[in-house]
Amino acid sequence: METRSNFQELPSEPHGIFWEENFITAEHEQHLISIFTNELEWPDRPGRVSLHYGYSFDYKTFGIDPEIPYKEFPSWLKPLIPTTEDRAPDQVCLQYYPPGAGIPPHVDAHKPYDQLYALSLGAPAMMVFRQGDRRIEVDLSPRSMMKMSGDSRLHWTHGIRKRKNDTLPDGTVRPRGKRWSITYRWLRDGECECGNLELCDTAQRRNGIEKEKRSLKALENAALKESVV
Ligand SMILES: O=C(O)CCC(=O)C(=O)O
Ligand SMILES: [Fe+2]
């Protein structure tokens, strides 16, 4: 696979956001938008809608849906696959955000996936990264490719507010328009070891198991005492 990398880490927190401006040309973007609007069949419902390629995302388990067969990448998608990882992504999701739509603050599940990339197309939107009371806004400019890794991926949530306008740092009020994003996910090798009990599904599961073990131990001890008495 040919590699090309113009990714630069953003100087601000959260750490681990790598950015490539103009991942594709404006003409290429227009061509894609015309495919998205004229050739693809979208779920018929208001708000944000998604189409999946490769393995499908399971919104119940936040992992790969074992029931849905692997879907080959369509020809328009192939040139948009990041070449900076050692293999192609396992799961790709195309999302359409009608003007004003958003995505609630979340952290993409740690258990199934490792790094995450997102290509923005169409109108810009502000993404908000949160950690505790801290909020950092990152402007998702069209044609930019973002890689979320490290802290930004594991220890901060991200989301896009559901609203008709974004207010830029200089006070400009920018109306939201139609936006598409393509997110790319790679299955994780082994387990996530970040240990973040608030945001990591693996750490939470382990903690649950430990708690269960602890209560089993307590029961065993109680039983032992009873049998001694
Ligand atoms: O639309 C985007 O740029 C990001 C979407 C997102 O956070 C997700 O699909 O997990
Ligand atoms: Fe996400």
Structure description:
Pfam families: 2OG-FeII_Oxy_2 (PF13532). This is Fe2OG dioxygenase domain-containing protein. Residues 88-188 form the Fe2OG dioxygenase domain. The protein is an alpha+beta fold. It folds into two domains: 8-190, Alpha-ketoglutarate-dependent dioxygenase AlkB-like (Jelly Rolls, Sandwich); 192-229, no CATH class. The chain is 20% helix and 32% strand. The chain has helices at 26-38, 150-154, 201-228, and strands at residues 8-9, 17-20, 49-54, 57-58, 63-64, 91-97, 103-106, 113-122, 125-131, 134-140, 145-148, 157-160, 165-167, 173-175, 179-187. Strands 1-2-11-8-15-6-3 form a seven-stranded antiparallel β-sheet. The protein has a four-stranded antiparallel β-sheet with strand order 7-12-9-10. Strand 4 and strand 5 form a beta hairpin. The longest helix is centred in the C-terminal third of the chain and has 28 residues, at 201-228. It is globular and about 70 Å long. It starts with 7 loop residues before the first strand and ends with a helix.
The spatial strand order of the largest sheet comes to 1-2-11-8-15-6-3
CATH-defined topology of the largest domain: Jelly Rolls
Helix proportion: 10-25%
The beta-strand count equals 15
End-to-end separation: 70 Å
What's the CATH architecture name of the largest domain?
Sandwich
- Tell me, what's the shape? globular
Query: Which range does the strand content fall in?
Result: 25-35%
Number of helices: 3
Radius of gyration: 21 Å
Query: What is the mean predicted local confidence, pLDDT?
Result: 90
| Hetero groups | 2-oxoglutaric acid, fe (ii) ion
